[in-house]
Amino acid sequence: MPEDKTYKEAGGAFPEDAGPLEILGMGIYNEVSAYDFYISVSKKIKNKSGKEKFEILASDEKRHREILEGLYKKESGKDFDFDPLRVKKIKFEIKDQTGAFEVIDIAMEAERQAYLFYTAAAKKTRNPDAQRMFETLAQEEDGHYQRLSAERNALSGGFYWFDIEGSGFVEH
Q1: Which residue, among 149, 154, 121, 155, has the nearest Cα to 136 in the 3D structure?
Q2: How many CB atoms are closer than 10 A to CB 83?
Q3: Closest by alpha carbon to 10, among 114, 86, 81, 98?
Q4: CATH tag for 20-155 (out of 1.10.10.1320, 1.10.10.10, 2.30.30.240, 1.20.1260.10)
Q5: For the whole model, what pTM was predicted?
């Protein structure tokens, strides 16, 4: 792979001629971007439960990065050459309840794009281990989307018992 390769935010698609290492690199940068976003959000939230939810999402994205970097090393024989200047920064501002909805909407769209990216990567790869990994990551990103959607409903007063499994939204 050329040393001057610029990775862009992958979204739900990548160039048709993208190779396996390029796809892994795009995924790594996406996960770092998501991690940075969730950590930034968690630092601004005063509500303990809300803060913890975004910290959990950040932890998941960090784990996703580690998984992708592991496969990158396995496939290339070297560590991923990470450049923090290539990470897309997601800008947001929290002012009031409307700000919270905006942040959740940004996060939901990022999770939707991640799901589409990993689904496309699973279809493109010829490596069965990579395919399973991409499918698993796609399922996890979909789970993030579903949790964020349920959280949005809860904040809007439209809490539905069947939005999500578990008792995360009901305080004991």
Answers
A1: 121
A2: 11
A3: 114
A4: 1.20.1260.10
A5: 0.80
